[in-house]
Amino acid sequence: xxxxxxxxxxxxxxxxxxxxxxxxxxxxxxxxxxxxxxxxxxxxxxxxxxxxxxxxxxxxxxxxxxxxxxxxxxxxxxxxxxxxxxxxxxxxxxxxxxxxxxxxxxxxxxxxxxxxxxxxxxxxxxxxxxxxxxxxxxxxxxxxxxxxxxxxxxxxxxxxxxxxxxxxxxxxxxxxxxxxxxxxxxxxxxxxxxxxxxxxxxxxxxxxxxxxxxxxxxxxxxxxxxxxxxxxxxxxxxxx
Amino acid sequence: xxxxxxxxxxxxxxxxxxxxxxxxxxxxxxxxxxxxxxxxxxxxxxxxxxxxxxxxxxxxxxxxxxxxxxxxxxxxxxxxxxxxxxxxxxxxxxxxxxxxxx
Lengths: 240, 102
Prior knowledge:
The structure holds two protein chains of two kinds. Helices cover 77% and strands 0% of the residues of chain A. Chain A has helices spanning 2-36, 41-51, 54-65, 70-80, 83-94, 101-109, 113-120, 128-152, 158-164, 167-182, 184-202, 211-229. Chain A starts with a helix and ends in an 11-residue tail after the last helix. Chain B is mostly helical. Chain B has a domain at 32-101. Chain B has five helices and no strands. The radius of gyration of chain B is 20 Å and the shape is flat. At the A-B interface, α1, α2, α3, α4 and α5 of A face α1, α2, α3, α4 and α5 of B.
């Protein structure tokens, strides 16, 4: 068992490395935004170490710049990060029942889109050490990128920033496409998700909804309809 | 009233931590309800899909380089490329396409 934990931890380190590089690029741009909002490099890095959420931090920095109230920032953070609530619910089913509380707290501290993506893509139950390995290697990427973003500002060529910024999306694609190849229902759901997401994000009448809330609404509605139309058979969660 | 930046950050961190940790610690054992099980099974695919598209189109300097990266990424993943390969090659596609059009 110990041996297996070590193996999973190493796999987590390996799969977390591209995430860390992607984080570095994204958080670099986040650092530039933080600097624009008037935060120091130390403050922005502290935020990145404590929060680990791109949209949540970005929204927070914007509100800090406008010296919003504490309650306002708390509510906005709740909305911007509510999708993690759904992801943590899904992860709770993926972890073995006997996972110690401390490991749940560590994993819970850093449930990001990408960490969630690779964790849920593991076949069968999730060994917590896999996720912890990915967290260990990716958190420094996120924090150091933020730090350098504040310090170096716009020194990196636009071409490089542009290229690096699809890295995270590439990762999402790599998580959702292989199961879609095996299961037609998932392929169909991805197509529908793309279409509805495009419509909601393009039509002006939906402009009053923030992008975080759009993600939540789409996720809840599409997943609920899919669950009603195509209930999952008993053992198919092994392929999730 | 002047607000303290560190208090702002700690509030943001506390809210985010609770959102992530409560489901992990409060949901004990396996959920039996068929609807909830199915719902949670589909959540990751839907949420990653809606976060990818159309957001990817705004991520780069040109819609076309992003679209190229999206198509190449899907094809690579379909034919079995790893997470790292898909991610790095998508970046490379953007870089190459933008060399030509920008």
